[in-house]
Amino acid sequence: xxxxxxxxxxxxxxxxxxxxxxxxxxxxxxxxxxxxxxxxxxxxxxxxxxxxxxxxxxxxxxxxxxxxxxxxxxxxxxxxxxxxxxxxxxxxxxxxxxxxxxxxxxxxxxxxxxxxxxxx
Length: 120
Known about the structure:
It contains four helices and four strands; from the N terminus they run E-H-E-H-H-H-E-E. The chain is α+β, with helices and mostly antiparallel strands and 120 residues long. The protein has a four-stranded antiparallel beta sheet. It is elongated.
């Protein structure tokens, strides 16, 4: 299998444990690694023979914008499910989800988690 990487997918969403996160929202960022057979597109030069990464970006952004979960673990799992549903050729993926401004006193970093999933 070949690997396709898309980094820095950003969207504003309403996932978080605290009520303020659910009401005010915050920025999230996703890096995506997917394993697909890219040989057909390498031969044909046709978009239909590969995984259209612009659609992957839209799937992730829509998922972040529409979802209202309490944990980033649930949001990340939902994004993986959406990607597998949208792309039948996708066999495996790795999704890194970053909460860019977590509500932690005296902390200016981000929090991220990485999910690795194979087609169910």
